[in-house]
Design brief:
Layout lengths: L4 E6 L2 E15 L2 E15 L2 E15 L2 E42 L5 E15 L5 E8 L2 E3 L5 E9 L2 E8 L8 E7 L2 E6 L1
Parallel strand pairs: 1-2, 2-3, 3-4, 4-5, 5-6, 6-11, 6-12, 7-11, 8-12
Antiparallel strand pairs: 7-10, 9-10
């Protein structure tokens, strides 16, 4: 239904088994949630653990965030360490300082869009995944499985490159990865 819980946790610890729809505000706290339907979370100076979610919107600062399985993820993070075990469909991330690690992206994902500066993003893909990529990297580096890639690399300037093409065996894939990295590293690899 249209009911949404609002949870506020400050300077304390919490545990939640299941929540269907919630707005969460976490500050200087620790929270563990086993499962969420749709969760919108703002977490600062905290430790946040989420086992499983369908849709998660996370605004994170100076945080340690560990997410298990998620279908659709939106992250805006600064000075945070965000770890995702498994991503099914969509990830849009905006990162400043800190780190994002996704252990495994499912083979049928639709979109991954990452904008990162002074932060590293590591994404592991299911070996069956193929995707189109457009990446602009300025003062940073992009590593990817070269033996599985057909990429065109264009030097935009002395410090910036643009990569375009397909990674994986299936050029008929509709999966897309879009990256804009500045003073940052992006590592794409097969699990």
């Amino acid at each position: 239904g249209g009911t949404e819980n609002t949870l506020e946790i400050k300077f304390s610890e919490g545990y939640i088994g299941y929540v269907k729809n919630a707005q969460l505000e976490l500050q200087y706290g620790e929270l563990e949630i086993d499962e969420a339907g749709s969760l919108s979370a703002e977490s600062k100076f905290s430790s946040f653990q989420l086992g499983k979610a369908d849709v998660l919107t996370l605004e994170s600062g100076y945080d340690d965030d560990v997410i298990g399985t998620v279908r659709d993820l939106d992250i805006e993070a600064g000075f945070s360490d965000v770890e995702v075990r498994s991503l099914a469909d969509r990830l849009v991330a905006d990162l400043d300082y800190g780190q994002l690690s996704v252990k495994e992206v499912a083979s049928g994902f639709s979109l991954i869009e990452i904008k990162n500066s002074f932060s590293d993003a590591n994404l592991g893909f299911n070996p069956a995944a193929s995707f189109w990529i457009t990446a602009t990297v300025k003062m940073g580096d992009l590593s990817y499985p070269r033996d599985k890639s057909r990429l065109n690399v264009e030097e935009l300037s002395f410090t910036s490159n643009k990569y375009e093409g397909v990674i994986g065996d299936d050029s008929g894939t509709s999966s897309k990865v879009v990256i804009e990295a500045k003073n940052a590293g992006v590592n794409l690899f097969y699990r």
